[in-house]
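Membrane protein DedA with SNARE-associated domain
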Amino acid sequence: MELVTAVLHSGWLLPALVLMIAVDGPVPMLPSETLLMMATASASVVRDVPMLLGLFLTAVAGSVIGDLAVHALGRGSNRLLPRSAYADHGVSRWVRSNLFRRPVTALAAARFLPGGRLVSCAAAGRLGLGLRPFLAGSAVSSVLWAVYMLVVGLVLGPMTGGNPLLCVLAGAVLAVVTTAVFALVRRIRAVRRRPARVGTPVPVLAGN
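Tokens:
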């Protein structure tokens, strides 16, 4: 507990978060969101407005840098990104169909879907989306995601009292609930799109 508290109040927190959020783009295994949420909740309890602003800017900067890295890797080599970046499923198909018509909408919406950041940014690089529209989409999606994380942290702050362990537990529950909701919505949409089965016609016997 004391170690976690020391990390949350360390002068290295913001630079470390920028790096973690950036690396979390091509390699989505680091607990950057958890640490960001914990730091936001802790800062909200003591009403540290400068820290909250710093966390917001840190989240945006790290997100844009990571998006650019995934875009560049998607454009250059398929071997440097995990296989999930090229998976063919509902999210990737939706991103591909909307990427050039509505790049900002496609990148921003995909950001809030499980695995959507990696898939959308890799697709943008692989399909040759220009840097200017990609940066616009990345900036919008990064700001929206940073606002979302800030709001979550502000909500969890009073509920957890800034306790790091309670923040982690609450964040885990929130992640599970969010993933379950997305999965449920996807399943409902798939069922609605499934064509109705046509019953086998019953043969009619001709009367004598």
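The chain has a mean pLDDT of 79.
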